[in-house]
Amino acid sequence: MKQQALNRSVNRPSADKKLLLIFFLALSALILYMFVNVRFDNPKLFRYSMKIRSPKLAAMVVTAVAMGAASIVFQSIINNRIVTPCLLGMNSLYTLIHTAVYFFFGAGNIIVSNSNLFFAVDLVVMGITATFIYGYLFKKTKYNVLYVILVGTVLTSFFSSIQNTLVRVMDPNSYDSLLNSLIASFSNINTEIIIFSVMVLTALAFILRKELALLDVIGLGKEQAINLGIDYDRCIKRLLIGVTVCIAVATAMVGPISFIGLIIANLTRQLLKTYRHRQLILGSAMFGIIVLVGGQLIVEQVFTYSVPIGVIISTAGGVYFLYLLLANRRV
């Protein structure tokens, strides 16, 4: 029996080899997106295609990294693989912020016309709200993450109710403009926004580097982590705020995409079958690139922009979520 188990372990590809396979798939998706249907025989058209596609590609990579890392860390904190960071209510808050700006200031105000300013408003409001609410909750609930999920669900309903009320009495022209901003899209990405997002994520990774290195131990459970000398409550609080900032960056840049985190995090865990979070976070980010870039390629080349990528991801994510519920009834 031991020899058979040893043979199976030898024949089974290691997580590093699988990670290398994901890397080549992600690289293939990036190359295909950049060069499919590009006029190589015409230098002007080639340069124009590169100018249009490069910012979109950069936006998708940044979004994939933010959502992939946030989803893996959040699932490890909650110790459940069928949850997503969307349970924190950030998508609903993003929708409410945009609705409020269009409702109170109109579609022609400077915040709407300046994408950099709107991005900064989204990031600041979502970051401050999440830090205040969840920081307060952690103190009041003695760092119980289950209360955080419950309050996140309540906040989602609360933000959605206010947003629906504003939409009902909104000017029709402003409502049409609002709908365009609430649908996930990689069109008209501003390069300054991408640079800003990269700076935020880089600073976040540097600030949380010690907590991220402890994720393998935190995944063992609260009691085990405390017995091994980890300041569990402080570490979880900082990681959860980091997850919120990542979701704020991704959502503020491309709009709400509810199921992307669930899809890429679970596909990574199913394929790699490892507890090492360095590999899981890296694999989830690359799976995110495959899903987002591959999906956008289908949207542009097959559906000719008639179907937004958010619709495709939400449909596929809903089906995948039902599969996870049926396949993991004990989770």
Characterization of the model:
By secondary structure, the chain is mainly alpha-helical. It has a single domain, classed as Orthogonal Bundle (ABC transporter involved in vitamin B12 uptake, BtuC). The chain has helices at 2-11, 15-35, 43-78, 90-105, 110-113, 115-140, 145-168, 172-182, 191-207, 209-213, 215-218, 222-227, 232-254, 260-272, 277-301, 309-327. α2 (15-35) runs antiparallel to α3, α2 packs parallel to α15 (277-301) and α9 runs antiparallel to α13. The protein is globular and about 65 Å long. Keywords: Cell membrane, Membrane, Transmembrane, Transmembrane helix, Transport. The chain crosses the membrane at residues 19-36, 57-76, 82-105, 117-137, 143-162, 182-208, 239-268, 280-299, 305-326. It is a multi-pass membrane protein. InterPro entries: ABC_BtuC-like, ABC_transptr_permease_BtuC.
Biggest sheet features: none
Number of helices: 16
- In N-to-C order, the SSE pattern is HHHHHHHHHHHHHHHH
Radius of gyration: 21 Å
Strand content: under 5%
End-to-end Cα distance:
30 Å
Assign an overall shape: globular
The CATH architecture would be Orthogonal Bundle
Q: Return the structural class.
A: mainly alpha
The proportion of residues forming helix, as a percent range, comes to: over 70%
Q: Averaging pLDDT over every residue, what do you get? A: 80
Number of strands: 0
Q: Which regions are unreliable across 5 or more consecutive residues at pLDDT < 50?
A: none
CATH class: Mainly Alpha
Family: Belongs to the binding-protein-dependent transport system permease family. FecCD subfamily.
InterPro entries: ABC_BtuC-like, ABC_transptr_permease_BtuC
Organism: Thermoclostridium stercorarium (strain ATCC 35414 / DSM 8532 / NCIMB 11754) (Clostridium stercorarium)
GO molecular function: transmembrane transporter activity
